[in-house]
C-alpha cells in the first residue's frame, strides 16, 4: 500500500469513510489507517476532518481538545476549520451487536435531545449539517408494522446549522427509505404517507415527523422513499452538557499546559480515545429492549411549525 499513488489512496479512503460502517468498523479504520504511512495519514486526516463521524461521546471530547489546542499528530489544524458535516450513525441491522453501537446510540440519543445547536455553531462555524442516521431491519423494533418486517429501513435526519431569517428556526429534513424487492407488496399500493407517519414517535427523534405537513413519497428500484421538511424553533438550555463542552473548546487555551496531555495521549496510542470494550448482546430481546429505551427517552424538545 505504500507504493499506491496519492490519488488512488484518496479514492480508497473516501469510499470506505462514506460507506456507513458500523461503529466498531469505523473505530478500527480510524485507528489503523493513519498508521500505514504519511500519505495515508494525511489523506485520511483531510477526509475525516471534512466529514466527521462521531462514534462515542469520548471521541467528541477528543475533537474538542483538538479544536481548542490546534495541535494534533493526525489532524494537525484541520479540525474544526475544514469540517462541513457532522454525523452520528447507528447500525441495528444485526441481531447481535457490540457495545460500540450502544455508545453510538448514546450519542444519537444525546444529540436529539439538545434544545439548540449553539455549541456546534460556535466550534464548527463552517459546518453545514448535523446528521443522525439509523439503519435497522423491520421487526427488530416491537412497534414496527408487520408489513415492514424483514425489510431494511434507513432513517436520516439532517439539521441545517444555518438559521432562517428570524434567527430562531432551523431547517430539518427527515428521509426514510424502505427496501422491498417484491413488486406485489402492499407497501406500493397503500397510502405511502401513512407508512411514513407510522414511524412517528417510534424511530424519528423528537417527533420530527408531522401529519400536518406535506410528505414527499416515491418508489424506484424496489425502494420506497419518504421525505419531509420542517423548521424547528430552538430553545435555551443544554444536555449532558454537550454545548458547554463545545463552547469551552471555542475558548482556545493559550500555552502548552492544557494541550500537553492531549499530545501524550496521541503519542501513546491513537486508539486511546476509544474506550469502549467490545462485548456482544446475544439476544433479540436485548436489541428490542435497547430500542425501547431509546424511544421512551425521546421527548418533545422542539416546537414544530
In words, what does this structure look like?
- It is a single chain.
- With 305 residues, the protein is an alpha+beta fold.
- It has one domain (6-304).
- Helix content is 35%, strand content 20%.
- Strands 1, 2, 3, 4, 5, 6, 7 and 8 form an eight-stranded mixed sheet that branches.
- A hairpin with a 2-residue loop joins strand 6 (216-220) and strand 7 (223-233).
- Helix 4 packs parallel to helix 8.
- The model is unreliable at 253-305 (pLDDT under 50).
Please give the domain count: 1
Arithmetic mean pLDDT: 74
Helix content: 25-40%
Task: Report how far the terminal alpha carbons are from each other.
Answer: 52 Å
Sheet with the most strands, sense and barrel status: 8 strands, mixed
Low-confidence stretches: 253-305
SS elements, strand count = 8
Taken from the alpha-carbon principal axes, the silhouette is globular
Strand content: 15-25%
